[in-house]
Amino acid sequence: MAVPTETRGPRLGATLREGERVTPLELFFDLVFVLAITQCTALMSHHPTWSGLIQGLLVLGMLWWAWTGYAWLTSVVDPEEGAVRLVMFGAIAALLLVSLCVPDAFGNLGLAFALIYGVVRSAHIALFMLASPEDDALRHSVLGLAASTLVAVSLLAAASLFDGLAQGALWALALLLDMGGPYLFGSEGWKLMPEHFAERHGLIVIIALGESIVAIGVGASHTLSLGIGAAAVLGVALTAAMWWIYFDIVAIVAARRLIEAEPGKTQNEMARDSYSYVHLVMVAGIVLVALGLKKTIGHFDDHLDAVPAFALLGGVAIYLLGHVAFRFRHIHTVNRRRLLLAVVLLILVPVAVELPALATVAIANVLLWTLIAYETRSYGEGRQQVRRPAAAEA
After folding, report:
1. Which of 243, 274, 293, 353 is most buried, judging by how many CB atoms fall within 10 Å of its CB?
2. What is the four-CA torsion angle of 199, 200, 201, 207, rounded to 10 degrees?
3. Three-state SS across the chain?
4. Is residue 177 domain-shared with residue 216, that is, in the same domain?
5. Which domain holds residue 42?
6. 382-392 per-position pLDDT tens digit
7. Is pLDDT of 82 > 80?
């Protein structure tokens, strides 16, 4: 039997991506991100205060920016070819170590978090440099990313020397400067496989929703009663509603708009704004809901404290506000129904602290599923027209 000749590039180099589908190695990478999300929830659960909530969200933001950077990377290079596969394995190991540092990232493991996080980001930048030997525009963008990464990692390392407000301010500044970097060095140089990029972010939303399911199991503490069972069912129903709101129509339409956008600056900025930025808001909302559900399951007949109540109802509200921003970025119109429901949920937070936790989850379910029923009916035949091509492609 003749052996096929390798035509895709040197085994020790970086091969440019050809297909649009997410690869098994990318899914393997995302499995480690599952642990990172779980650790963020654990950090907030162990410190159920407003400062603990902010710390968890800051850590989530840094981890998200690292993850979405690899989503951009694997939209340029094939992660399963050449040296890229080996470097990806190294990045997976480093991300695992970063995740283990998360619960004490604002304590004794702050410096370890910063240094290992720097390794995760450095591997990402090195692979980008390997993929752009003859692409000056891409290399310029990568060098800009390297500069913002260096600043962010330095600030995180400096933050480990402080505590309290000063430490939190340095973390916030690191996140702001790192995520704001792409606005400073332009977007023309990036390369993008739009279908792959949209699918990758859809999968990470599923992973984040899975954390809500995990939180239900953890909150049950290996026991089952009628109240815990009811709370668990309502928790799954709430997670399913959040899934429906994203995947029924929004994910399909947004992916098509990204695919149809003019390649280059227009398409890159749409991907940056609506996926790299806005999806962080959605994932943050989901993680907060996971925290709220974790606290609810174990204390279904008690009143929720202010922070868990905000995490539950405010998390759903933040998730909906992410959808409002997502739509506005794509078609420059506001989804008033989702915006109104987000406001209502935030208004209900003070009420939730006076109600049994089970009642709060039930109210969130009723409101969210009512929105879904109304939207599904109002979409009419248009919904089927949007979903039929997606079903045919699948």
Report:
1. 293
2. 110
3. CCCCCCCCCCCCCCCECCCCCCCHHHHHHHHHHHHHHHHHHHHHHHCCCHHHHHHHHHHHHHHHHHHHHHHHHCCCECCCCHHHHHHHHHHHHHHHHHHHHHHHCCCCCHHHHHHHHHHHHHHHHHHHHHCCCCCHHHHHHHHHHHHHHHHHHHHHHHHCCCCHHHHHHHHHHHHHHHHHHHHHHCCCCCCCCHHHHHHHHHHHHHHHHHHHHHHHHHHHCCCCCHHHHHHHHHHHHHHHHHHHHHHCCHHHHHHHHHHHCCCCHHHHHHHHHHHHHHHHHHHHHHHHHHHHHHHHHHCCCCECCHHHHHHHHHHHHHHHHHHHHHHHHHHCCCCHHHHHHHHHHHHHHHHHCCCEHHHHHHHHHHHHHHHHHHHHHHHCHHHHHHHHHHHHHC
4. no
5. 17-191
6. 888 888 765 55
7. no
- Rg of the chain over all Cα atoms, to the nearest angstrom: 21
Average pLDDT score, the chain: 88
- pLDDT, tens digit, for every residue of 274-330? 999 999 999 999 999 999 998 888 777 888 899 999 999 999 999 999 999 999 999
- The separation between CA 57 and the C-alpha centre of its own chain, rounded to angstroms, equals 11
Report the number of distinct structural domains present in the chain.
2
- Same domain as 350, residue 212: yes
Residues 169, 196 within the same domain: no
Q: Do residues 63 and 186 share a domain?
A: yes
Task: Based on the fold, state whether residues 43 and 182 are members of the same structural domain.
Answer: yes
Is residue 103 a part of any domain in this protein? yes
Query: Does one domain contain both 253 and 331?
Result: yes
pLDDT score, position 247: 95
- Same domain as 204, residue 183: no
Q: Is the pTM of this model over 0.85?
A: yes
pLDDT tens-place string over residues 39-51: 999 999 999 999 9
**Alpha-carbon span 364 to 362, nearest angstrom:** 5
